[in-house]
Amino acid sequence: MAKWVLDAGHGGNDPGAIGKHGRREADIVLEAVYEAMRLLERNGEDVLLTRASDISLEPKERAYIANNWNADYFVSFHMNSFVDNSVSGTELVIFQKGDKSEELARFLKDELLANLKSNNRGIKEASYTVLRETKMPAVIVEAEFISNEDIEKNFSGIKYGYMVAKACLAMVNKVLIDTPIAKPKTPAREGWRLCIGYYKKYEEAEDEVIKLQNQGFKDVYVVPYPEE
Q1: How many Cα atoms occupy the beta-carbon half-sphere of 41 within 13 Å?
Q2: 0.85 exceeded by the pTM?
Q3: Which of 28-37, 48-57, 65-74, 172-181 has the lowest average pLDDT?
Q4: Of 15-24, 53-62, 132-141, 180-189, the least confident
Q5: How far apart are CA 65 and CA 8, in angstroms?
Q6: Considering only CA atoms, which of 47, 13, 6, 46 is closest in space to residue 30?
Q7: Which residue has the higher pLDDT, 68 or 224?
Q8: Domains and CATH numbers, the chain
Q9: What is the end-to-end Cα distance of the chain in Å, rounded?
Q10: CB 75, CB 5: distance < 8 Å
Q11: N or C, which end of the chain has less CB nearby within 10 Å?
Q12: Is the pLDDT of residue 152 over 60?
């Protein structure tokens, strides 16, 4: 079991990038981290979210949360944006190449590119606070450009989370298993009886019937309870 900190970028008074039709980066990535958490936990991993709602967090706070929890891995979820709304593609950002951060970034890149059919914008190095100050392998995922209208319209935060979870599990030599919880089927019957209580004394049951009838319930009856 590994300990994963999943970081939904932006939030609160910082919506992140906003698409032409109003979709906010902060909302998409929050949806994504919840789906990734669900899948990782169902596959035996331990997960902590830096933010679980639409709140603001400074980069130093995000790094502190991961370090204080002694996380094994840190993944920060983002979307990209550019003035040219035709630009598309996926890129990963790490502090420096040649370590486990780059290995994790490669797993993430391969999964995202395969499923998003996205342009490969590579793995880049940058001295961002959440990469520089975290003590574990850390990656920022920039999954596609919300400034691209087609992507804004069709991009799924849930699918984003699924892909990240699958890549994270591959990093620790696991295959994602997600068996949906099926709702039990309603048996076919002509009708159903509603039982409201059990009374040891007939008089108590009769009083309850009268009370329910006074409340407007017409079909109320006292039915003998079978002895064991």
Answers
A1: 11
A2: no
A3: 172-181
A4: 180-189
A5: 13
A6: 6
A7: 68
A8: 3-171 (3.40.630.40)
A9: 49
A10: yes
A11: C
A12: yes
How do beta strands 3-8 and 46-49 pair?
parallel
SS3 string, 165-187, reads HHHHHHHCCCCCCCCCCCCCCCC
Q: Is 116 helix (H, G, I), strand (E, B) or coil?
A: helix
What is the pLDDT, as a whole number, of residue 181? 59
Task: For residue 202, give the amino acid letter.
Answer: Y
Question: Residue 128: which of 168, 92, 89 has the closest Cα?
Answer: 92
Residue 210 has pLDDT above 90, yes or no: no
- Note whether 17 and 147 are within 8 A (CB): yes
Cα(161)–Cα(40) distance, integer angstroms: 10
What secondary structure letter does DSSP report for 227? P
